[in-house]
Amino acid sequence: MALVKTVIDGREIEVERDRWAVEVARDMGIAIPTLCHHAAVEPYGACRLCVVEVTRGRWTWLTTSCDLPIREGLTIRTNTPAVLKARRMALELLWAEAPDAAEIQELGRQLGLEKPRFAPRVKAGKCILCGLCVRVCRDLIGQAAISFSNRGIDRRIGSPFETASGRCIGCMACVAVCPTDAIHVVDDGNVRHMETFHTDMELAECESCGRPSVPVKLLEFLRTKLPEGIPVSAVCPRCRRTGTAGKLTEVSTLAAQLGYIGGCKVGEASE
Amino acid sequence: MPATDMETFDFSKVDAVIEKYNTEKSWLIMILQDTQTAYNWLPQPVLERVAERLALPLSHVYNVATFYASFSLKERGRHLIRVCDGTACHLRRSTWLLDEVRRELGISEGEMTADRMFTLETVACLGACALAPVMTIDAKCFPRMTPEKVKNVLTAPRQGKEVGVKETEPARKEIKADKPKASGARTKLAPKKRRRTGGK
Amino acid sequence: MIKSVQELVARQQAARENFYSKKVRLGVGVGTCGLANGSREVLDSIRDEAAKQGLGYAVRGTGCVGFCQAEPMVDVLVPGLPRVFYHDMTPEKGRDLVKGLAQREFHPEWALMRLGADCLLVETERRLVGELNGLAKVPTIEEVPFYRRQLRIALRNCGFIDPEDINEYLATGGYTALAKVLTTMPPEEIIDGIEKSGLRGRGGGGFPTGKKWRSCREAHGSPKYVLCNGDEGDPGAFMDRSVMESNPHAVLEGMTIGAYAIGSDRGYLYVRLEYPLAVENLALAIRQAEQEGLLGKNILGTDFSFTVRLSRGAGAFVCGESTALMASIEGFPGEPRAKHIHTAEKGVFGKPTTLNNVETWANVPVIINKGWPWFAAIGSEKSKGTKVFSIVGKVKKTGLVEVPMGMALREIIFDIGGGIAGDRKFKAVQTGGPSGGCLPESQLDLPVDFDRLTEAGSMMGSGGMIVMDDRTCMVEVARYFTNFLQKESCGKCTACREGVRRMYELLERITRGQGTLADVDLLQEVCEYVRDNSICGLGKSAPNPTLSTLVHFRDEYRAHVVDHKCPAGVCPALTTFVIDKDTCIACGKCRKSCPVECIRGAKKVKHEIDQSKCIKCGSCREVCPVDAVATA
Q1: What does the pLDDT look like over C416-426, one tens digit per residue?
Q2: What is the ipTM of this complex?
Q3: Which of A172, A234, B84, C545 is 20 to 30 Å from B132 by CA-CA measure?
Q4: What are phi and psi of C191, to 5 degrees?
Q5: Measured distance CA(C47)–CA(C619) in Å, rounded
Q6: What's the burial of A6, exposed, middle or buried (CB within 10 Å: 0-12/13-18/19+)?
Q7: Is C426 part of the contact surface with chain B (CB cutoff 8 Å)?
Q8: Residues of chain B with CATH 3.40.30.10
Q9: Superfamily name with CATH number, domain C175-374
Q10: Which chain A residues are closer than 8 Å to C522 by Cβ?
Q11: In the CATH hierarchy, which top-level class contains the domain A1-127?
């Protein structure tokens, strides 16, 4: 891969061409706030929070750093007054769009916002339409159980026809990536209610502790996706942690017995 | 829709459309258009069928069907009335035309009359701007519409006749052919003087 | 099937002889504007009468000559005589015309213009005409103000030929450029010529066409795609519709030449759904061209193949944006993406793609035939060639005009457009559709080209020109466009989706009389944010109508928020109509026009508006012959 030189906040660096600017900045210790960005999926450029000032030749402009490929001759500034003003406005608009999202309010306050100058949307909740849930479900999990619908000011995220999704496997990857905790799920007995997506699913009992905790559909999904021979068992997160912790304890005891501590053999020079 | 309805639903029309496009995923939008022409709208079972036959996630088909304004996931009336609210039509007071149509039919944009005869939509621009304001009923275009003409143009479809038949239109003013002008002549701007009335 | 250049020339010759045969030929304009005005009945009655007369007249449907308000238009071609265009025809007049032609009665009183020396197009030879026979009183096309200043390159043939018959396109010398390219010009030479001609994208972007073709040619990847953007969504613009309906082969020929230059063997024509006649005529043109071997496999007997497929839009203005259009062709919602990676490298289906506008493609064959120096000599320094404009709104003459770039706005609006309807006062002209801005009278001497209007805060855009008079409220205009844009936004990015929404809310408040000066300042701030932070052209240019009116018409905003008045008398909440008792002549016109019957009065009794019922529609003011209705 070709290497190119770029300057970020006055510091020159040589990196592989076409790496995303936000990630290069992070490697340099420069934190750019993001909302719709996640390393597990392709950049989307929707939230507009990660904007930076870019100069190339005699042109300077604002653009998002999550989908900006590093090319030769780019100079990037991540916190000029223009950049901060733009981020502040993005947060102000998002705050008014999702008035219940605490994370947006917090980010806003960090940039000096007290409250938005726009009327909050009624019944709007917490969704900022960053699309991480949709993109993870579609591109990472491969189920595409939910999607965007409509457009413009009517744009929303949900299951098809706002009814139960036939493709949801209850894996909760969407919940894990949502930056504003907008997806509501309630486990009640042996049913998981994905309330935000109007989808209910049956939970299988944990083989270890007997609590209903793993969606049956998730088990079926894993069985079809994983290579044959790999056992798929219903184990709840708690038991999995305990189980793993147990295995780790075994390993470290063994390591201690053999003279290994912290990854290196005792008596050898460490790196 | 309840499951029993699915068994009696006529999928032959949508299946034929999908065949016509060789079951190719990228033709989804054209498939949805031709399907909507066949059923007059896009019912949920039909969209599910399209997703199934094209091996596309239902959420994708739903996304496409709701993104584009020409698709209707609600049942539509026998006749589609479109009032243009493009800039030229807007300047020629299409809003008043729309108000009159709403009043006359008793429905708003996106709605269907109770007798399932008419659905009303607004459209951004039909490209007949020189004839603003413009209204269409199905494929027939009515230029230079006024609120007064609305009842007239609705008469034929209300009587079950073909749209555009036997309406009486007021005589149009003819344009006189221009006399040749000397080159370089400019039309003078002639603002009319207006007397101010007493303030209110 | 035409398998060689010689065969093509022979076919063109035969088609020309058929066109200028010994038969009388009548053409009736059945483009969308014509049909809306009842030209189908005119065509039917002329056909019927000609059959009855048994004189063997050729009767054809043609496209649109661009003077839409004069439709239905009929043109008559009698052997040896000038071609004459008739306006405002009816079925009865059509019959009379046919009957009269047998007796050499030409009804000059119905004629709009005659062509002194008939030429089908810029490139063919002119046919000499004989004696005028009573047609001397009819002005020539060079004398008619609407047509006098025009140079019709992209609009050639429109209204002159039958778009449903490829032979008529051949008669104009159609496909000569393609033959020339395939047999004598290597791709490098073609691209070089297009670059030197200075042709820039006519869809609004103004990107140098030659440069675009070159970068696609040099891109890695296969197959390469050639696309045509027929998604003319700007309200008030219908240039592309006219070309697609009236001269579809010009677009096909242009695309085929481009495909050859770039090294592409396939493409798509993306046409908006709201143009069904354009879709039909293009589909027919594609079929006929394929049958003749001028499109598809082994074109003109060479080993070059190019197949084109029609893709329809589905009601989304944003699909005029290049990346959204490509997403739509792929079967996705029209969501734009950032263009750090150019579509010339990775476009539709991830392959190198060249997308050009309808009008751009239509120019290509002419540039090839007449050579790039001829084209580069037309227009202004950085904007070569001509541009088609649609003049609509409060002008006397509405329609399509094509003029060399660099003509002043004033000339287009007043010399060609005839000035303001009703002789009212000019207030502003909106150029470039919803992406453009409003320019006041002080800017009327600006030359219209790619760069000068942009510098003034508007843009030439696709060529839409909406003329406004003193009864237009510029704040309401900004509100109208912003409403349009918030509905057409794809909704992906915060800046456009939320920013334009809030812009609309503020404008709505201001036009309702609930706005403050602080609102106007906030509006300015949000506009600048949306302009600088949106992903695509829709969002980036969405603030233009508002920003340009804030610059040029700020006093109107002040009147709305400080004085709580709408000076133009448009915003209902800030307008009161009053009939001046001294001026009123009690003619009753206002009373009859009032949709809510709120005007009291009778013959010889001064009329008065009942303010409690008045809905502020302005009809009374519009119809009053003595201007007695004023805003208080």
Answers
A1: 999 999 999 99
A2: 0.91
A3: C545
A4: -65, -40
A5: 41
A6: buried
A7: yes
A8: 79-158
A9: NADH-ubiquinone oxidoreductase 51kDa subunit (3.40.50.11540)
A10: 117
A11: alpha beta
